[in-house]
Design a protein that fits this description.
20% strand, alpha/beta, 8 strands, Rossmann fold, 214 residues
């Protein structure tokens, strides 16, 4: 039986990163993720993602920042992917089918911690500041389909909470959120690519199989 083909976009950094991509690769080997990873895209030509791609024998594609919708469409078509997973991808995605493209975000959405500028350590620093002001007691992990709206609240299909502890820093909070991402991303990705979670890309009421913690 043919496995669904998955393309991953993972920025990483020039000297590391790509841990989410690595977990997806491991999951595709141990049976948690029933999918064929047909490629990984990074905007670092010789960074951590490329090194991890070589380790898992995954085709690597370099795509510099400033890409347009046509670039995304071209890569998607050339790889023959059925689905696209954004895993730590820095940049707004255009031109891909929203019902086939999904993202993981290290915060509880919808909230003020989504949209432009909220990525990496910036998110956790902002969350800690809000916690100290008494504005919230938890953060979380969210997965959503990718539309023309950045971190679209109508396209969320998975969410889990992470309690903020009194002695948390941005670094300790990142570590716990990241661990939860690594746990759930392969599991939920498997549900999407194998049809357990689906959406028509337009109508919020068409969402099926969502697993959203309140």
């Amino acid at each position: 039986m043919r496995k669904p083909k998955l393309l991953i976009f993972a920025s990483g950094s020039k000297d590391g990163g790509g841990s989410g991509f690595q977990k997806l690769c491991e999951a595709s080997q141990n049976g948690v993720l029933s999918a064929e990873i047909v490629g990984v895209v990074s905007n670092h030509e010789n960074g951590g993602v490329k090194a991890k791609a070589a380790k898992f024998n995954i085709p690597f594609i370099y795509s510099p920042k400033g890409r347009a919708a046509e670039d995304y469409k071209r890569i998607y078509k050339e790889t023959g992917a059925d689905f696209v997973a954004l895993s730590g991808w820095l940049g707004f995605v255009e031109g891909l089918p929203p019902e086939k493209t999904f993202n993981i975000h290290p915060a509880f959405l919808p909230s003020q911690f989504g949209g432009t500028g909220f990525y990496g350590h910036h998110i956790h620093e902002a969350v800690i500041d809000a916690y100290k002001k008494g504005e919230l007691t938890y953060t979380g992990v969210t997965m959503h389909f990718v539309t023309d709206t950045y971190d679209d609240p109508n396209a969320i299909f998975f969410r889990r909470k992470v309690e903020i502890l009194p002695d948390d820093t941005a670094e300790t909070l990142f570590a716990r959120v990241n661990a939860l991402e690594h746990k759930w991303q392969p599991i939920i990705t498997n549900r999407i690519v194998n049809g357990e979670i689906s959406w028509d890309g337009k109508n919020p009421e068409s969402m099926r199989g969502a697993d959203i913690e309140k």
